[in-house]
Amino acid sequence: MTRFDAARVRAEFPILRTTVPGGAPLHYLDNAATSQMPEAVADAMRDHDFRRRANVKRGVHHLAECATEAYADARQRVARFLNAGDDREVVFTSGTTGAINLLAYAFGATLSPGDEIVLSVLEHHSNLVPWQLLRDRRGVALKFLPATADGRVDVTALPDIVTPRCKLVSVTHVSNVTGGETDIAAVVAAAAVVGARVAVDGAQRVSHGPIDVRALGVDFYAFSAHKMFGPNGVGVLWGRGELLETLPPFLGGGEMIRTVSLDRTTYADIPARFEAGTPPITQAVGLGAAIDWLTGIDRPAAEQHMARLTGRVIDGLATLGGGNARIEVVGPAMTPGRYPVVSFAVDGAHPHDICQILDGHGVALRGGHHCAQPFMDSRGLAGTSRASLALYSDDGDVDAFLNGMEDALARLTL
Ligand SMILES: Cc1ncc(COP(=O)(O)O)c(C=O)c1O
Q: Is residue 245 part of a domain?
C-alpha cells in the first residue's frame, strides 16, 4: 500500500508551521474538537467573498445569481459526498448541533406522548439535550443503549430497548470520547423491526471521507464542516426526501416561505423550508471545497497512517513512567473501526493539569468531559485527557505528546 505523504499534506496547513508562546512548535492533537483548514478551502471562501458575494435567491442581478449558483453547487457536492439520492435532501445548518435541534423539533412535532426515542449513553450533549427538550415539550420517553466495556455503543442491547413504541433511534457514528465506531447496520436492522427511523450523528466520522447514507440505510445524518477541514458556522442535516417532505419547519423567517399574509404562512419545499434567513453561504462554499480536498486524499493510505500513529499513542501511554503509570485508555484497542481519538485517565492527575503541561510542550490536547458527561458518570470519571489525530498528524506530534506526558507524569503524580 502507498505510504501516505503526511509531510506533503501538512504543507497545505499554514497553522501547522506556527509555534506556541514559549517557542515550541505546535503539535495539534485536538482534531476531534475542530480540525484545521487547508489553504485550498480558505482560498475558495476568499475567492467567493471577493468575487461572488451576494445574498442567495433574492436578486436577479449578476452577483446574486453567481452566489445562488455557488450555494447550489456546494449542496451538490455535499449530496455526492453522502451519496444522497437528491440534492434537496441536503439541508444546510449551523453545524451538527443545529442539525440535531432541527431534527428534534421537526421530527418531534410528529410524535405523541408515550412515543419512545432511543439514544445511547455515549452521546455528545448535542445528541442528548435536544431530545430532552423534546421530551419535556411533548412527553415522549427517552431510552438509552449502554456502552460496551471498551467504549462503543452496545448494540446487543437493541432488541431489549427498541420496542414497538420506538419512533427513532439516534446514535453517534463514532464516539468523540472513545473513538469507537457504532455498528450502524445493527441499529438499522433493529429499528426496521419496529418501523422506527434512524438518525446518525456523524460529527466524528466525516473527516474520514465520503459516507454512503443509502448503503448505511439510515434516515437522517448530521455533521459539521469544521470537523472535516472546512469552516465553522456550517453543517448539514441530510434526511430522506420523502421524510423531510412530511416534517414541519423549525425556524421561521425569510426564504422558508411560499406565501405570507398577516394571518397565515405557507411553506417552501425542502430544503428551503428548513433554511430560514440568510444561510451560511461562504461557509457552504468552504464546505464544498473541503469535500473536494478530502476526496482527493489517498484514503486507504491516510487511514493506515492514522491507525499507525494512534497505535503509537496507545502503546506509548502503556509504557510511560517505565510502564508503571496508572493510565487507563477509555476506548477500544487498536482494531478496525477504531478512530484516532484517544481518551485517557491518569490516576492522581487532573485532565486540565495534564493539558496545561502539554500546552507548554506545544501539544494541544483537550481535557474534561468532552460534552459527554453521562458517559463519564457511567465510568465514574470526572473527565479524561484526549489526544485526537487527523491525517496531517505525524510522528513528531506523537513524540512531542509522549515526551510531554513523561513530563506531566513526573510533575503531577510523584
Ligand atoms: C460526536 C459529536 N456530536 C456533535 C458535536 C457537536 O458539533 P458542533 O459543535 O459542531 O455542532 C460534536 C462536537 O464535538 C461531536 O464530537
A: yes
List the CATH number of the domain containing 92: 3.40.640.10
Q: DSSP state, 165?
A: T
Active site residues: 371
Residue 381's domain comprises: 6-30+298-412
Residue 96 beta carbon below 6 angstroms from any ligand 1 atom: yes
> Could you state, in chain order, the average pLDDT of each consecutive group of 10 residues for the chain (414 residues)?
81 97 96 98 98 89 96 98 97 98 98 98 98 97 97 98 98 98 98 98 98 98 98 98 98 95 96 97 98 96 95 95 86 90 95 97 96 95 96 98 96 80
**270 lies in the same domain as 336:** no
Q: Which of 100, 224, 375 to mutate to test the pocket of ligand 1 (most atoms within 8 A of CB)?
A: 224
Domain boundary among 247, 262, 295: 295
For residue 204 and ligand 1, the question of a CB distance below 6 A is answered with yes
- What is the CATH classification number for the domain harbouring 376? 3.90.1150.10
- Structural domain count, the chain: 2
| pTM assigned to the model | 0.97
178 Cβ closer than 6 Å to some ligand 1 atom: no
Q: Crossing angle of helices 39-51/281-295, nearest 10°?
A: 150
Q: How many CB atoms are closer than 10 A to CB 49? A: 13
CA proximity to 200, closest of 115, 254, 124: 124
Ligand 1 atom 16 nearest Cα: 176
Provide the residue type at 225 as one letter.
Answer: A
On the question of a cis peptide bond just before residue 271, with omega within 30 degrees of 0, the verdict is yes
